[in-house]
Design a protein that fits this description.
The protein has helices at residues 12-23, 37-47, 63-72, 91-99, 111-123, 131-141, 159-169, 174-181, 185-199, 204-214, and strands spanning 3-8, 28-34, 51-55, 80-85, 103-106. It is of the alpha/beta class. The chain is globular and about 50 Å long. Keywords: DNA-binding, Phosphoprotein, Transcription, Transcription regulation. One of its GO terms (molecular function) is DNA binding.
């Protein structure tokens, strides 16, 4: 399967570097480029890529607003957003995840890690969660003002699903969850899908955000 990507960054040099990397790697195709959020949304609508690689800080419409528009667009349900940032602790990153982004990477990420991240996000198999992501979510969502989820949905989550959700929040894949709970991968996948439906999560990244916001998973202070 070829993973089709739109590159959104206000720096032409950054886009050129990413394009060169993807053009020389089998299994990837650069479907379009954008220098601001408005163009990113337009490119997503025009090309329907698998992933939009989105810079957060761009002039005009920034990456956060563009992410929100793409993930809420009725015709773009299959398009995922991978956020790139120069800041490893940035509240905008959390907001992008909450808006529906599938994860984020730092711009100084090694090329092989970027390619791996794109494959993971395209597959939708696991949350792209380096330790800094979990720390970021735990620190910000732990603040009372960020508890914005409808708690009535939480009451429908079973005890077993809470166990599964805690493991998802820890960054485990379906295979790892299955091994931990001694169940089949198919059963783990079914649990995750049901939880996402119950609490209204678009994908696993948003599922983790909602897990923290709902109190179903408690942030551990000082964890890395």
């Amino acid at each position: 399967m070829t993973i089709r990507v739109v590159l959104a960054d206000d720096q032409a040099l950054v886009r050129a570097g990413f394009r060169l990397l993807l053009d020389t790697e089998d299994g990837f195709e650069v479907a379009g480029e954008a220098s601001d959020g408005e163009q990113a949304v337009a490119q997503a609508v025009e090309h329907r890529p698998d992933i939009v690689v989105m810079d957060i800080r761009m002039p005009g419409t920034d990456g956060l607003e563009a992410t929100r528009r793409i993930t809420s667009h009725p015709d773009l349900t299959g398009v995922k957003v991978l956020v790139l940032t120069t800041f490893d602790v940035d509240e905008y990153v959390y907001e992008a995840l909450r808006a529906g982004a599938s994860g984020f990477l730092l711009k100084d990420t090694e090329p092989v890690e970027l390619l791996h991240a794109l494959r993971v996000v395209a597959a939708g198999e696991a949350l792209l969660a380096p330790t800094v992501t979990r720390r970021l979510i735990a620190e910000i969502v732990g603040r009372p003002e960020h508890r914005r989820i409808d708690t009535s949905a939480v009451q429908e989550v079973t005890e077993r699903e809470r166990e599964v959700l805690a493991l998802v929040a820890g960054g485990l894949s379906n295979d790892e969850i299955a091994a931990h709970l001694v169940i089949s991968t198919a059963t783990a996948r079914t649990h995750v899908s049901r939880i996402m439906t119950k609490i209204g999560a678009r994908d696993r990244a948003q599922l983790v955000v909602l897990a923290y916001e709902s109190g179903l998973v408690t942030p551990r202070r000082g964890s890395h």
